[in-house]
Write a structure and sequence with these properties.
Elements: H1 4-37, H2 42-59, H3 66-73, E1 77-85, E2 88-95, E3 99-104, E4 109-115, E5 121-126, H4 128-134, E6 138-143, E7 148-152, E8 157-162, E9 171-174, E10 182-187, E11 190-195, E12 200-206, E13 212-217, E14 244-249, E15 254-258, E16 264-268
Antiparallel strand pairs: 1-2, 2-3, 3-4, 5-6, 6-7, 7-8, 9-10, 10-11, 11-12, 13-14, 14-15, 15-16
Helix pairs in contact: 1-2
């Protein structure tokens, strides 16, 4: 039975995740202004940071010095992910300084820094697959250096690299099925589906001459809910079950792909500018 303390902590964690998601999107707006429109004024950035830190402090009284953690790193991060294991809360950040950093949220300190990418790190994800199947704490990162790399937190080293992309890798996402065994990445005009366990590229989806920015994989289908996803590790099992990939593009559209046949199923139109974020909702909606 959940206690009041458990509910409070769960609410706090949810608030932190929402804060991180919103903050990185707002910050990205400033980055776009830097490169495409105008340099944001220092005062504007200060107000942005102060506003979100104040909001976070009101909702998360259990983090007293979170401002020190964020402000120390805020001017150069590109992406943040969040996970909880061994009763500890951690954040992972990728930066234009080419590093991936691990932060201990409870103790408000940086734990580790991984160096290996030769250019900016655009996306980081905690690998649920490595944790569930192998009990390893692993971060996956993508970079402008055209690679996707896997980092073992405990051993503090890189142990795996995917290097088949020919341009910078904008976004990565693990599959919500099969224990997260499959990884999808988008780079300029190409989407790739990878088998993490076998370290190989399974499928290539071509965006033709359209630049791809973001990607997501559809959740577990209702007709497979009772299956043991960790046992069904053959990608062929997915085919015909309705699993899809969606991508946000520079031509203002969202494209839907069949994950097995690699065929384009649908194109969603309506946005008036580049689509920079896409996310599938739960099947219950």
């Amino acid at each position: 039975m959940a206690t009041h303390g458990d509910e409070k902590q769960t609410s706090a964690r949810s608030t932190l995740v929402n804060f991180i998601s919103i903050f990185q999107k707002v910050y990205y707006h400033f980055v776009i202004r830097c490169f495409m429109i105008e340099q944001p004024k220092e005062r504007e950035i200060q107000l942005l940071v102060q506003y979100w830190l104040r909001t976070l402090k009101i909702k998360l009284g259990w983090i007293n010095d979170f401002d020190n953690l964020v402000v120390h790193y805020v001017m150069s991060f590109c992406y943040i992910d969040y996970s909880i294991f061994d009763d500890n809360q951690f954040m992972y950040s990728g930066s234009n300084d080419k590093t991936i950093r691990v932060w201990d949220v409870d103790n408000n300190k940086q734990m580790q820094s991984f160096n290996g990418h030769s250019k900016a790190v655009g996306c980081v994800k905690f690998s649920q697959y490595h944790y569930r199947i192998h009990r390893r704490h692993v971060i996956c990162s993508s970079s402008d250096d055209k690679t996707i790399r896997f980092w073992d937190i405990k051993n503090n080293q890189q142990f795996q690299i995917f290097d088949k992309h020919r341009d910078w890798v904008n976004s990565i996402v693990f599959s919500p099925f099969n224990g997260g065994r499959y990884l999808c990445s988008i780079s300029s005009k190409i989407i790739r589906l990878w088998d993490v366990e076998m370290s190989n590229s399974l499928h290539v989806f071509s965006e033709e001459d359209i630049w791809g920015w973001c990607i997501d994989i559809s959740p577990l289908q209702n007709n497979n809910i009772n299956n043991d996803n960790n046992k069904s590790n053959n990608i062929g099992v997915i085919g015909g079950s309705g699993y899809t990939i969606c991508s946000g593009l520079s031509n203002n559209t969202i494209q839907i792909w069949d994950i097995e046949t690699t065929k384009k199923l649908n194109v969603l139109k309506g946005h008036e500018n580049i689509v920079r974020s896409v996310k599938y909702g739960p099947n219950e909606l």
